[in-house]
């Protein structure tokens, strides 16, 4: 029976290394299912999960969260290189929730800064418009 070899690598080392019958990933172009004898290719991954159906048990599925990265498929060998990757079983829920809160705060602060920047730009535009209008009025006199 044909099989895939799946390896997921981060700067910290090898995160995942197993044989599979099927792998599902999300690329920037959309969802992609990979079976043995898949065409060789390289694609950019979205921040999402990788689903791996293990060859040793049809009902056994591994889930790995990846922070984007690149997937290479070559001769039934799948190599994923990502900045970070974590198996579902290894995710620390409380740490993930704290990271989510930090990210939400960072988004709010970025939006506040953008809003402040937009307000300043509008005020500046109004000042410039007022100056221009006063110059036009001055020239009319």
TrEMBL record:
<dbReference type="GO" id="GO:0005886">
    <property type="term" value="C:plasma membrane"/>
</dbReference>
<dbReference type="GO" id="GO:0012505">
    <property type="term" value="C:endomembrane system"/>
</dbReference>
<comment type="function">
    <text>Produces ATP from ADP in the presence of a proton gradient across the membrane.</text>
</comment>
<comment type="similarity">
    <text>Belongs to the ATPase epsilon chain family.</text>
</comment>
<dbReference type="Pfam" id="PF02823">
    <property type="entry name" value="ATP-synt_DE_N"/>
</dbReference>
<keyword id="KW-0139">CF(1)</keyword>
<keyword id="KW-1003">Cell membrane</keyword>
<comment type="subunit">
    <text>F-type ATPases have 2 components, CF(1) - the catalytic core - and CF(0) - the membrane proton channel. CF(1) has five subunits: alpha(3), beta(3), gamma(1), delta(1), epsilon(1). CF(0) has three main subunits: a, b and c.</text>
</comment>
<dbReference type="GO" id="GO:0046933">
    <property type="term" value="F:proton-transporting ATP synthase activity, rotational mechanism"/>
</dbReference>
<dbReference type="InterPro" id="IPR020546">
    <property type="entry name" value="ATP_synth_F1_dsu/esu_N"/>
</dbReference>
<keyword id="KW-0472">Membrane</keyword>
<dbReference type="GO" id="GO:0005524">
    <property type="term" value="F:ATP binding"/>
</dbReference>
<dbReference type="InterPro" id="IPR001469">
    <property type="entry name" value="ATP_synth_F1_dsu/esu"/>
</dbReference>
<keyword id="KW-0066">ATP synthesis</keyword>
<keyword id="KW-0813">Transport</keyword>
<keyword id="KW-0406">Ion transport</keyword>
<dbReference type="GO" id="GO:0045259">
    <property type="term" value="C:proton-transporting ATP synthase complex"/>
</dbReference>
<protein>
    <recommendedName>
        <fullName>ATP synthase epsilon chain</fullName>
    </recommendedName>
</protein>
<dbReference type="InterPro" id="IPR036771">
    <property type="entry name" value="ATPsynth_dsu/esu_N"/>
</dbReference>
<keyword id="KW-0375">Hydrogen ion transport</keyword>
<feature type="domain" description="ATP synthase F1 complex delta/epsilon subunit N-terminal">
    <location>
        <begin position="4"/>
        <end position="85"/>
    </location>
</feature>
């Amino acid at each position: 029976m044909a099989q895939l070899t799946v390896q997921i690598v981060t700067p910290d080392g090898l995160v995942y290394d197993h044989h599979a019958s099927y792998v599902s990933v999300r690329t920037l172009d959309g969802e992609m299912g990979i079976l043995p004898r898949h065409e060789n290719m390289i694609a950019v991954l979205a921040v999402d999960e990788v689903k791996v159906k293990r060859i040793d048990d049809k009902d056994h599925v591994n889930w790995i969260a990846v922070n984007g990265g690149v997937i290479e498929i070559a001769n039934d060998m799948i190599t994923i290189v990502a900045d970070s990757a974590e198996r579902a079983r290894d995710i620390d829920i409380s740490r993930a929730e704290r990271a989510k809160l930090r990210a939400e705060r960072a988004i709010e602060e970025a939006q506040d800064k953008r809003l402040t920047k937009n307000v300043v730009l509008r005020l500046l535009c109004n000042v410039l418009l007022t100056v221009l209008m006063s110059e036009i009025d001055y020239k009319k006199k």
